[in-house]
Every structure is written in C-alpha cells, then in structure tokens.
Amino acid sequence: MENKTHLVDEITGHRRMRRNRKADWTRRLVQENRLTVDDLIWPIFLIPGTGILEPIPAMPGVNRMTVDKAVEAAKEAADLGIPALATFPNIEMALRDETGSNSLEKNNLINLASAAIKKAVPNIGVITDVALDPFTSHGHDGILRGNEIVNDETVDQVAQAAVYQADAGSDIIAPSEMMDGRIGAIRQALDAAGHQNVGIMSYATKFSSAFYGPYREAISTGGLLKGDKKTYYIDPANGTEAVRDAALDVEEGADMLMVKPGLPYLDVCWRLKEAFGLPTFAYQVSGEYAMIKAAAANGWIDGDKVMLETLLAFKRAGCDGILTYFAMDVARQLAKK
C-alpha cells in the first residue's frame, strides 16, 4: 500500500487539529461552551408614571419604562425563557438628596416594580441593587459627608434598604456600592427579617471604569456626579486586589459573584471562578453595549455576530451567566434555532 504520509504528519506527530473542525456536525459535537437563554439576565430601567417607554439616546434599543410597561416586559422575557431581570430606577430629582433617603421608602419606585412584577410574573427572578446613586443628589453610591463617601453609615442604610427590597419581592439583592462589610451586614439584616431565602449576588469586583457613561445617562446621574468613584471602586489595574475583595464577600456570605464591567475583565471572571467555585456572573455594561451598537450602525461590524461572540466569551471565561442589555435580542435569536 502506498504510503501517503505527508511532511505535515511528521511535523505534527499525526495530530491534526482541523480534524474536529471539518464539518458542522463535528464542530457541534466538540463545542466546549454554549450560550443559552438560561445564561441571560436582563437589566431594565424604571421611571415613574404610567404607559411610558422612553428611549435612551446613548443606548439604542433600550428604554426607560414605567412599572406597568416593566410588567409587560417581564411577561415577554419570561415567555422567551429569560430567568431574571435586574431593575434600576430613575427617580424624580425632587426625591434625591445627600443621603439617598428615598432608598428607605418602602413604596419607592424600585420596590413598587418588584411587587408588581412578582405578582404578574411569579416565575421570573427579580434582582435589585441597593447602591444609593439613583437616590442621591450627588450621584455617588453612598452617603456623602463633606468630601467623603462614608462607609459605615452607608452600610447601615443599604442593609435596611435590602430588607425593604426583599419585603417587596426581590429574589436576589445585588449590592454594587462597594462599601467594606456590606455583604455581611446585608446577610445579617435579611436573616433577621426572615429573608433567609433571599440571595446575595455581590458586585464583588466593580471597577472604576470609563465604560459606565451611558448607564449614568439612563438613571440621570451623570450630570450630578461630584468628583469620581475611585475611593470605593477598584482600580482597573488591580486584578489581585479584585480577587481579595471577592474573597471577603465570599467569607461574608455572598451566594454569587459578579464582575463589572465584563469584556475588559475576562481574566478576573476566570480568576474568581477558579478561586471560589461560586456561581459567577459578568455585567456587560452600557459602554460595551453602546460600542457594539454604534459600530454596527456604521456598518463596521456585524452587530448580531459580535453580540453573540462577546456573550460566548463570558461563558468561556467561566461565567455562569451574563447581565446584558442584549438579553431580549439574544433570546429571540436563540428561540429561532
């Protein structure tokens, strides 16, 4: 029999990586990671009023919505199989003050939305944030005293707000204000109030990033912010510090961990999953979303393909799920397959 061995066979030791790539069926058979609707959490923005969908210019395709519209959106998301929503309020400026006191109103906008969504769509998860930036007149995530965001007083307030959010129907508290000790304080407050079944998804590694701009437009804090958030968010240069920060949250009782932003911090996603083994999530933030949308609108990229590729990258980096403004678009595409 003629020996058809090629030089390439000798070079590779008869190992050819392309064998498993030769056909669609083999590629599907050996695919390591898959994106499914079960991986999606849809962040939505709330505004007061009734019957309003208000487009956000910096986030094409994303709207602020009143509670009744949020309920409709929740029903549509549930029908598509999306497991959970994450809600963020844009409250009236008249209700914002130095301490974010409206966060402690039991019937504030975020709590009204939680109650309405859980009543109408009990099978969808509701994730709420206790950070104070939507409620403060200065746009910071905590209480401002002089020129300082005070840690301990902020922790007291967000722990109390977490109980009210759980009372209203929130399934998971996702504290993003990055105060020291907040996870333990929230866990103790929830348990003391009988909310042992309410989980905590810690924004374990929230970086002082330039990718948040469109989000701040969405909740109307961009023009309010005095100074920056570097005294409590993590330096983008510090990966090891991020792991240490997450370790403290794990010790304090976090059920899940989140990395924010997402794509620029895939290394951190991987490190957290490897280090702790907890369910790990990434937040594909507003700046990431806006860049894809803008490039697609200019015809520079295929927006749908880039959208799916970025989300698959989170899965490859060890994430169990992704908070993304693309959630509904992705769910519709996946439903067609």
From TrEMBL:
GO molecular function: porphobilinogen synthase activity; zinc ion binding
Pfam families linked: ALAD
Active site: K206, K260
One GO-annotated biological process of the protein: protoporphyrinogen IX biosynthetic process
Catalytic activity: 2 5-aminolevulinate = porphobilinogen + 2 H2O + H(+)
Keyword Lyase: yes
GO CC entries: cytosol
Family annotation (InterPro entries): ALAD, ALAD_AS, Aldolase_TIM
PROSITE patterns, per the entry: D_ALA_DEHYDRATASE (PS00169)
Keyword GTP-binding: no
Top-level taxon of the source organism: Bacteria
Keyword field: Heme biosynthesis, Lyase, Porphyrin biosynthesis
Pathway linked to the protein: Porphyrin-containing compound metabolism; protoporphyrin-IX biosynthesis; coproporphyrinogen-III from 5-aminolevulinate: step 1/4
UniProt enzyme class: lyase
Entry's EC annotation: 4.2.1.24
Family membership: Belongs to the ALAD family.
Self-association and partners: Homooctamer.
Descriptive protein name: Delta-aminolevulinic acid dehydratase
